[in-house]
Amino acid sequence: MTVLVINCGSSSVKFQLIDLGGDETSTRQDDELKGVIERIGTETPDHMAALGLVAERVQAHLSKTGGNLTAIGHRVVHGGAEYSEPTLITDQVIETIDRLSVLAPLHNPANNDGIRAASRNFPGLPQVAVFDTAFHATMPKAHRTYAVPVEWEHEYGVRRYGFHGTSHAFVSRACAKWLQAERQINPANSRIVVLHLGNGASACAVAGGKSVDTSMGLTPLPGLVMGTRSGDVDPAVFGHLNRVADMSVEEVETALNRDSGMAGLCGDGDMRAIEARLAAGDEQAELAMNVYIHRIRSTIGAYIATLGGVDAVAFTAGVGENSETVRAKIATGLEGLGISLDANRNKGRGSDPSGIREISAASSTVSLLVIPTNEELEIATQTNQVITRLQQRG
Ligand code: ADP
Question: Which of 3, 7, 42, 220 supports an S-S bond with 75, CB 3.0-4.6 Å?
């Protein structure tokens, strides 16, 4: 089972060939091909041309390894209320993804360009859409509902959807397996908080394998402080800035997405640069870091209440997997919640061969784990499941 995973943005196409072999959790690395086509619109004319280049490289690779492509799995950002599962792509699915573009104008159109271009360049191959929102479809109604006029949801789709679902699904499942093996906790009862801390950042409360709350919302803007996105702000900032600074809705929205977060607070959106400045005693960087950490800790507290307790907190993505400093700042002083970090175990980066590194102290009732995310593998796995189900039905 070889799946081509495609993540199509407005100016780039990331692709990876994943051979799932017999076991869906392990892949045959030597058979893999991975790459990115950048500068679409300038160097590469359009998505059709980009997927043409991908097809050439994939075919060259497969003729060398003697492999066969079984399916294509596409990352699609917004599945709205329509999609709670990975879905075989048909013309009707493409239309629906187009219709959902109002909810994700920066992402869904590019995702669909990739789908259309892939079906031209790989004719006859089944294609599956894996939605970033899907994992959160299990959120209870009370957790996904905003306290706004009720018709806003029915008429305009205004509600919490959540994002990073592929990552939260992958990491929470690995975490639940670890809790079962190491602490004999039944996965059906496990309570996990996943912190996906990358350029984009979100938290997810997972009960018995299901998302019950998450920090992003209608769009990927709210929740935690991110590289350039603000996370939570008072929504009245739109009206206020319109009145006092004559800023339009679009201007405020753009500023909250691109010029805010860590970059807005201290000029640097990259955590490595911020850490270097912190070490040099930079006060602006220190304030940015404190805002970032405070928001994460508040969210952990909220999710412990939502879950009625917590068995594990999992750190993932660029910052979560690599920043010893951020993990230590998040965990320090939470002993009252049963959270206690082992400074030695927390040192350095990477993980042991199982992919999971425990960084909690022996006295900690909550397991603190570093779990590298793998969204491409998760998309391939979910694509495989759709295709297998289809074949079984004949
Ligand atoms: P994306 O959301 O774009 O996929 P990543 O998950 O790759 O982003 O995360 C990028 C972030 O991870 C950046 O802020 C980067 O500075 C941070 N990061 C990567 N390596 C380290 C490190 N060793 N220490 C601290 N931060 C790191």
Answer: 7
